[in-house]
Design goal:
It is found in: Mitochondrion; Peroxisome matrix. This protein is α/β, with parallel strands linked by helices. It has two domains: 82 residues, Acyl-CoA Binding Protein (Up-down Bundle), CATH 1.20.80; 251 residues, 2-enoyl-CoA Hydratase, Chain A, domain 1, CATH 3.90.226. It is 55% helix and 10% strand. Ligand LG6FSS7D binds next to α7.
């Protein structure tokens, strides 16, 4: 009897492991850590691995989850794993029945909403609960959306944010997913990603317009220097706290901001982390126009719809004439900024700032 039950439980365990791979929705980090811990306990027994270092956030979280199970018997862990997967499958299935085929799914983007209407392709950053922080998936999706927009039949492309923020910049949890090659490999991969990401903005062929609906931080601010127009709500602020984060400027801002606002004002922003109001950013040339938040959407979209009616080829060619002679320089600046940042990400100053944010010791 016992033996039959154990065999059945082992089979259920294997089925459950397969079921986890087939889950349609991400169950979230907390559940994933529980699954990891139960799996390890069921297959290897109690945790006797050395505790990972303080900067190794992911492995430390995994270790904590496993260690918490103490001396739970392997068979019980196996059963608990099976029970957890079964509850998970039914809850995720039922939630997908409530909301069949949401918009996000139909567009094929997880972190963005992309629509095309009235000659305008609108790319909306769509992680409002995280203040539209740009995680690795979002970097890739923005690049994909820009590539698609460069070839579609729209005349202009708009980037905006959903919710109260435009974007809080780089998602600081990006730094916690350390690959087997360690933090050096992570820094190298991030520099490659950043260079490719910024390169897409440098090369974007159609008029690119930012509709800054709220506060903007970090990389969401620096790349504005590569846009053709920037419209802001009077609720928006512009903040590049690189020194506070132990980092250095990116998005070609070390070049574009100096050209736009001059070295003194650019230094205040990029080195001293001065946060600008929308009015100040407009006075310094980073923002094209500011509108009261109450009428922002109406006024901006009326203006953009009128722009989108202009002959698209003329707009594209005019942009080429204005921007092309700077392209080579911008790519060189981008490469240099990324290589400096690759080093910065390995510094104690940067690691401490990220750990402080993640352990909720500091915010901007
Ligand atoms: C690979 C390429 C790398 C390119 C490098 C680029 C450099 C940069 O972009 S530097 C800028 C990095 N950004 C920040 O330092 C902002 C950090 N966030 C904050 O200081 C605050 O969250 C805020 C001032 C933006 C908002 O504060 P508020 O009190 O209104 O809201 P919160 O409760 O803090 O946020 C809600 C929710 O969102 C999460 N979150 C917000 N911003 C980020 C972020 N940048 N990275 C990760 N997560 C972020 C925050 O943790 C909250 O999540 P929970 O509800 O789960 O706690």
């Amino acid at each position: 009897m016992n033996r039959a039950a154990m065999t059945a439980s082992q089979k259920d365990f294997e089925n459950a492991m397969n079921q986890v791979k087939l889950l349609k929705k991400d169950p979230g980090n907390e559940v994933k850590l529980k699954l990891y811990a139960l799996y390890k306990q069921a297959t290897e027994g109690p945790c006797n691995m050395p505790k990972p270092g303080v900067f190794d956030l992911i492995n430390k979280a995994k270790w904590d989850a496993w260690n918490t199970l103490g001396s739970l018997p392997k068979e019980t862990a196996r059963q608990n794993y099976v029970d957890l997967v079964s509850s998970l499958s039914s809850s995720l299935e039922s939630s997908s029945q409530v909301e069949p085929g949401t918009d996000r799914k139909s567009t094929g983007y997880e972190t963005l909403m992309v629509t095309s209407e009235d000659g305008i392709t609108k790319i909306t950053l769509n992680r409002p609960a995280k203040k539209n922080a740009i995680n690795v998936e979002m970097y890739h999706e923005i690049m994909r959306a820009l590539k698609a927009a460069s070839k579609d039949d729209s005349s202009i492309t708009v980037l905006t944010g959903n919710g109260d923020y435009y974007s809080s910049g780089n998602d600081l949890t990006n730094f916690t997913d350390i690959p087997p090659g360690g933090v050096e490999e992570k820094a190298k991969n991030s520099a490659i990603l950043l260079r490719e990401f910024v390169g897409c903005f440098i090369d974007f062929p159609k008029p690119l317009i930012a509709v800054v609906n709220g506060p903007a931080v970090g990389i969401s601010v620096t790349i504005l220097g590569l846009f053709d127009a920037v419209y802001a709500s009077d609720r928006a602020t512009f903040h590049t706290p690189f020194s506070h984060l132990g980092q250095s400027p990116e998005g070609c801002s070390s070049y574009t901001f100096l050209k736009i606002m001059g070295p003194a004002k650019a230094t205040e922003m990029l080195v001293f982390g001065k946060k600008l109001t929308a009015g100040e950013a407009c006075a310094q040339g980073l923002v094209t126009a500011v509108f009261p938040d109450s009428t922002f959407q109406k006024e901006v979209w009326t203006r953009l719809k009128a722009f989108a009616k202009l002959p698209p080829n003329a707009m594209r060619i005019s942009k080429e004439v204005i921007r092309n002679r700077e392209k080579e320089k911008l790519h060189a600046v981008n490469a240099e900024e990324c290589s400096v940042l690759q080093e910065r990400w390995l510094s104690d100053e940067c690691m401490n700032a990220v750990v402080n944010f993640l352990s909720r010791k500091s915010k901007l």
